[in-house]
Amino acid sequence: MSDYLMNSGTMKAVFLEKPEGRLVVKEVKIPQPGPNEVLIKMSAAPVNPSDLAKIRSAHTEYDLTSFIPGLEGSGTVVEAGKGILPHLWKGKRVACSSEYYTSGSWAEYMVTKAGKCFPLGSKVSDEQGSMSLVNPLTALAFFEIARQNKHKAIINNAAAGALGRMVELLGKKNSIPVINIVRNQAQVDTLRQLGSPHVLNSSDSSFIDDLRSLSHELKATLLFDSVCSRQLEMMCDALPYGSSVIIYGNLTGEKQVVFNPRNLISNNLNISGFYLGTRARENGLIKNMLHLKEVSSLMSSDLKIKIHVMFPLSEVQEAVDTYLGNMSAGKVLLDCRTTHSNKL
Ligand SMILES: NC(=O)c1ccc[n+]([C@@H]2O[C@H](COP(=O)([O-])OP(=O)(O)OC[C@H]3O[C@@H](n4cnc5c(N)ncnc54)[C@H](OP(=O)(O)O)[C@@H]3O)[C@@H](O)[C@H]2O)c1
What we know:
By secondary structure, the protein is α/β, with parallel strands linked by helices. It has helices at residues 3-7, 49-61, 84-89, 126-129, 134-148, 162-174, 185-193, 207-218, 232-238, 261-266, 276-300, 316-325, and strands at 10-16, 23-29, 37-46, 72-80, 93-97, 109-113, 117-119, 153-156, 178-182, 199-201, 220-225, 244-247, 270-273, 307-312, 331-335.
């Protein structure tokens, strides 16, 4: 029997105390991997907007007594269920995403499908590796979509965040200009320091006019929006004829977005949604592995995600509050190896 099971057979994991309540740490049984699954001793896990969205709606979808949050992270595979892939990953340091609502990455151990793990290169730290699935794969997908549909330039909203910075970097690598939309002057300055020539501030009174002229000048016919603000309708109306709008997040939490049907028709606009999980399922294992390899090589070189601070699991609520206080400051990580304070 493995050391971790002989020790106590239990682990610390994050739970939601009650609907809209605080996040707390509880001691529960370590899960066991089934066929095609692995057990990972977790190292680090980020707080992502998608985690918070899942936590907010958890009480309507899951049994809170078994719901463990955390969609991605990094760790070492310590047990393998039946199957070739689980045994291939055993003993390896991996980036991983969760498969089950009962086993998230905000815990000392997580069980997930072996197909949701990818070995980390020796140059990639546990911290950077813990963020190497959701945002990097999404950024790659954006450029795949842009290339497939022959867009000459793209527009991205909430561009000062982790994903936005990656999109800017990949834009340069792919020679596809990116118009970055941010919401204040400090974020304009951050993007300019990163070398972005095209940054618009959605708080400026000239924002919609600026978007209209720059999108027409660069032939930016693909808008990725994760904000869903009340400006979205005017933003869409400002885009060049035949543009596509892809909604991939809902940072405002607005329940509805409004579009003028006449403008959609006359401007030939195409509006759709994007969810990485769906795209990964459609891509299949081999294409996903190729994308992960590309991410791994990018992360070994210039793709570094800014980390703001790291909290132990036991301070999970403080971690979430800190993250929400300043999302653009960088990612807030949970240190799954320790339950006592050891902030970066
Ligand atoms: N659909 C998918 O598959 C998928 C995959 C990956 C990411 N996403 C989405 O991508 C978005 C960005 O993720 P991330 O990891 O880059 O987040 P992040 O690093 O936390 O950054 C979030 C950024 O959004 C800004 N922001 C927050 N609320 C805003 C609002 N109401 N209006 C305008 N800007 C706002 C923040 O600015 P402040 O500092 O000013 O708050 C920050 O710059 C999220 O919505 C996430 O859910 C979706």
